[in-house]
UniProtKB/TrEMBL annotation:
Signal sequence bounds: none
Domain of life: Bacteria
Pfam families assigned: DUF218
InterPro entries: Cell_Envelope_Assoc (IPR051599), DUF218 (IPR003848), Rossmann-like_a/b/a_fold (IPR014729)
PANTHER family noted in UniProt: DUF218 DOMAIN-CONTAINING PROTEIN, INNER MEMBRANE PROTEIN, PROBABLE PERMEASE
Gene Ontology annotations for the cellular component aspect, listed alphabetically: plasma membrane
Organism ancestry: Bacteria, Bacillati, Actinomycetota, Actinomycetes, Kitasatosporales
Protein name (database record): Uncharacterized SAM-binding protein YcdF (DUF218 family)
Organism of derivation: Streptomyces murinus
Residue ranges of domain DUF218 in the record: 45-146
């Protein structure tokens, strides 16, 4: 942990773990028509997508994502392009991958991927969204709003919070992101971006407490 990073207390870790657990949908995975790998700073999305392709869960994989301020330096040619290359390196044939290189947010990930699939003559009934672990619930809510006539399943790398923090290397940033995504789960339905979802009282309490403790760098203006 760098000198300028905030030390995380045991109680803050406990509250973060409640939010981490809530963010994951815990869907039982089974074969689907297509999978969509949602672009982000986390190359683990591409790794997990490749694993699930090799397991035979889907014949077609879309990678979606352009760039954001947090990914431009890491993935200079765009998130989807780098994810595709990583998946090919892990054994996914290039002909199984469709590319959506422009999306700048989760709503665009869904709508533009749907357009790419339609352009390829694919009209799925079941779609697997592969995301960062703490983004499963938000991506599910977004897809249910924007693509209500299909069945949505969610998946991510099977990591616990400690292992995910080690993979990212920045404790404060991960907790900020957990808080920021929960804010979006709460706020986005009011803006028409996602379906409403119940937030248990203990999860909401953990969220409000971590905001008071300063884990706020990923919050949006509500």
């Amino acid at each position: 942990m760098g000198d300028n990073q905030q030390a995380i207390t045991e109680d803050q870790w406990h509250r973060a773990a409640l939010i981490w657990e809530y963010h994951q949908m815990h869907h039982a995975l089974r074969p689907v028509d297509v999978a969509i790998g949602l672009g982000s700073h986390d190359l683990g999305v591409a790794t997990r997508s490749a694993e699930l392709y090799r397991a035979g869960l889907f014949p077609t994989l879309v990678f979606t994502g352009g760039n954001s301020p947090t990914t431009a330096k890491v993935f200079p040619r765009g998130e989807a392009v780098h994810f595709r290359e990583h998946a090919i390196g892990l054994g996914v044939p290039s002909e199984a991958i469709l590319l959506e290189p422009s999306a700048g947010n989760t709503g665009q990930n869904i709508t533009l991927s749907r357009e790419v699939l339609a352009g390829a003559g694919i009209t799925p009934a079941t779609v697997l969204l592969v995301s960062k672990p703490y983004m499963e619930r938000r991506s599910y809510a977004t897809a249910r709003k924007l693509w209500p006539d299909i069945e949505i399943l969610c998946a991510s790398e099977p990591l616990d919070l400690d292992d995910y923090v080690k993979s990212i290397g920045d404790e404060k940033l991960v907790l900020d992101m957990l808080v920021g995504d929960l804010q979006r789960v709460i706020e986005y339905p009011k803006r028409g971006f996602a379906i409403e979802q119940e937030v248990p009282a203990d999860v909401r309490g953990a969220y409000e407490s971590l905001i008071r403790d300063g884990f706020t760098s990923r919050l949006i203006a509500s």
